[in-house]
Design a protein that fits this description.
single chain, alpha+beta, Elastase, domain 1, Neutral Protease, domain 2, 11 helices, globular
């Protein structure tokens, strides 16, 4: 039975839960309001899911609405349209620009027509609610809170946050990773990966130059150097007096086991996303250059090839095989993928432990490792076996269809 997709939001529940316990009444009230708003939106999406239908194509056109601090979207005023002038409201313009950058990134890098691949229109609602410290993707549109000005700034102020939320829509229309446990952590990780890549693409940063931080511009605006998450070093993004230390693990040996409930973060989806996040960072740096040119397409094709219930092991195996298909069996890109997953303690199926443990050295202009004949031969065997399994599955399906 397929699980209902929840409302997606950038702020992990473990942060808001801690803020509700604050001695500061203003901080406590803002966090409570945000949690209540999130719960209401989650309920609305569950109801709407029972009447689900395909989104009408809209030429990927952007419209930004001003909620004027209301949570009733039907009364929101149109603030900026695709053909209209720039607004006097900075939040409106930031949301409009970020929606466009994310749309253009998917179009130019992956030849994808908007979120659903069919020109889905992009609607954003700014000044949503009163001091709401979150940004949401509800399956059709984006909602931006203004933050409380203390722990959270204006949520339109972070490009990677907006790209993160829109990427939840891309995942909905590709793998549809179920939002719990490891598949849910993969869902969250995909949003961090492509959210970070949109920012790097805009800034024209190489993998080495990028900061690999998520939400640094909107989390604790008065404190420099911290962020909601670090893809480069999960577990080090923040050490905050109100919420404690970043709890993300960076390897399977630190995997966080939580109940599959709301209070358990759906089985730790915001916690354990640190593991595939680190694998992508290591892959991108291992290959070198601009991460959206090789590592990005590799992850995107793997996302499209994945299924809703895939686990970390499944995705690691898929990225390894896709690296061989896209860039050559046993090549530097595939070796970088293998080394990255091994570093986070996930061994690609069928590959001997330690084969790519040695860190790479630039030999091919990309900054990645050179070819290894043993890896190439083994990978060919793995891919041949995979092809045989696929062919056998098709034969079995055909036999069933004739009965």
């Amino acid at each position: 039975m397929r699980r209902t997709r929840p409302i997606n939001c950038i702020i992990p529940p473990y942060i808001l839960d801690k803020l509700v316990e604050s001695d500061d009444r203003e901080v406590r009230q803002a966090a409570l309001n945000t949690l209540l708003t999130t719960a209401r939106l989650r309920g609305e999406r569950t109801v709407r899911a029972s009447f689900a239908g395909a989104a009408a194509p809209g030429g990927a056109r952007r419209t930004v609405f001003d909620c004027e601090h209301s949570e009733f979207l039907q009364t929101a005023a149109v603030a900026r349209t695709e053909d209209g002038p720039e607004s006097a409201d900075e939040s409106v313009n930031q949301a409009f620009d970020a929606l466009g950058l994310t749309r253009d990134f998917y179009k130019e890098v992956f030849q994808r027509d908007s979120i659903d691949g069919r020109g889905m229109r992009l609607d954003g609602f700014v000044h949503f609610g009163e001091k709401v410290g979150n940004a949401y993707w509800d399956g059709r549109r984006m909602l931006f809170g203004d933050g409380d000005g203390l722990e959270f700034g204006d949520l339109t102020g972070s490009l990677e946050v907006i790209a993160h939320e829109l990427t939840h829509g891309v995942t909905d229309h590709t793998s549809a990773f179920e939002y719990h446990k490891q598949s849910g952590a993969l869902n969250e990780s995909m949003s961090d990966v492509f959210g970070s890549l949109v920012k790097q693409w805009k800034l024209k940063q190489t993998a080495e130059e990028a900061d690999w931080l998520i939400g640094a511009d909107v989390w604790t605006p008065g404190i420099g150097g911290d962020a909601l998450r670090s893809m480069k070093a999960p577990g080090t993004a923040f050490n905050h007096p109100l919420v404690g230390k970043d709890p993300q693990p960076d390897r399977m040996g630190k995997f966080v086991h939580l109940p599959d409930t709301r209070d358990g973060d759906n089985g730790g989806v915001h916690y354990n996303s640190g593991i595939p996040n680190k694998a992508f960072f290591l892959t991108a740096v291992g290959i070198g250059g601009f991460a959206w040119e090789a590592a990005g397409p590799l992850w995107f094709e793997s996302l499209k090839a994945s299924t809703a219930q895939d686990q970390f092991q499944d995705f690691a195996d898929t990225t390894f095989l896709k690296a061989g298909e896209l860039f050559g069996v046993g090549g530097p890109e595939q070796t970088a993928v293998l080394a990255a997953w091994q570093e986070v303690e996930i061994q690609v199926t069928g590959v001997p432990i330690g084969l790519a443990r040695a860190r790479s050295h630039p030999v091919n202009g990309r900054g990645g490792p050179g070819r290894e004949d043993a890896l190439a031969a083994l990978t060919k065997q793995v891919m041949t076996l995979s092809d045989k399994v696929t062919a056998l599955a098709k034969e079995v399906a055909a036999l069933k269809a004739t009965r």
